[in-house]
Amino acid sequence: MDENEVIDAVCTYLIEEGYIIHSRLLTTQRGVDIEAEHSQSKHRLYIEAKGGTSSRVGSNRFGKSYNHSQVFDLSSKGVYAALVLRSKHPDREQEEVRLAAPDTPLYRKYLEPIVDQLNDAGIEILLVDEDRTVVPLVVADKK
By C-alpha distance, which of 90, 98, 79, 78 is closest to 38? Predict the structure, then answer.
């Protein structure tokens, strides 16, 4: 699942949850991948998305899953981008920040250990399954 597919699945999910999509970017564009607003609460939502394969036809990784180091790199950059979004949009009462990624073992490997810290920072992780199901990443109690 490439980044464009992740963005598409998350936008579909958000619309079903009552959000209006104000903007959504393609992998070739720079900026906030998804900006949305809830139709009733008017909460603003800013989402950074990452993919599990290249979306560029002809690239070496097109159609092939990213390896460990590539997913680590993308996870790290996604977390950084989400933290920057949180710093630009600090009002937790009116603004939400999320990081979306494919639900793969490698993304889970790098995101599960820090999910609590990201939640504390006001950043929720959304995972997108191959069937386009979107769920928040929740780690079972470690005790």
Answer: 98
CA angle 105, 110, 112 (to 5 degrees): 85
Which residue type is seen at 9? A
Q: Can you say how many angstroms the Cα of residue 128 is from the centroid of all Cα atoms in its chain?
A: 9
Is 102:52 a contact under the CB 8 Å cutoff? Answer: yes
Per residue in 58-74, pLDDT (tens digit) is 677 667 788 899 999 99
Q: Please, what is the average pLDDT of the chain?
A: 92
Instruction: Determine the Cα–Cα distance for residues 94 and 90; give it in Å rounded to an integer.
Output: 9
Q: Show the CA angle centred on residue 2, arms to residues 66 and 109, nearest 5°.
A: 45
